[in-house]
Amino acid sequence: MYLLAIMGEIRVTTISTAVDVFGDRVVTFVGVSPGQLDENPLQFVMTSRRLADGYRKFFEFMWDHCR
């Protein structure tokens, strides 16, 4: 279970996606949750140094501004 803040409104939701960034690759997993795997999970890999760096910068921004 996760808390999402959308336009000032806090909602409790479950998210069945994950993103992993390494090197010049961004892997998106759909149908996965902590400790769970859906019957038909999906993953796709995007290879782009620019995209991977953008995801890293976004993560660092969120990490630095999360309280």
Notes on the structure:
By secondary structure, this protein is an alpha+beta fold. The chain has one domain (16-65). Helices cover 25% and strands 55% of the residues. It is built from one helix and five strands, in the order E-E-E-E-E-H. Strands 3-4-5 form a three-stranded antiparallel beta sheet. The protein has a two-stranded antiparallel sheet with strand order 1-2.
Features:
67 residues; alpha+beta; three-stranded antiparallel sheet; two-stranded antiparallel sheet; 5 strands; disordered N terminus
Describe the structure concisely for a colleague:
The protein has 67 residues and is an alpha+beta fold.
* Estimated helix fraction: 25-40%
Secondary-structure element pattern, one letter each: EEEEEH
Number of DSSP strands? 5
What's the helix count?
1
Q: What gap, in angstroms, lies between the N and C termini?
A: 18 Å
Mean pLDDT: 81
Topology, element by element:
Layout: E1 2-6, E2 9-13, E3 17-22, E4 25-33, E5 36-47, H1 49-65
Antiparallel strand pairs: 1-2, 3-4, 4-5
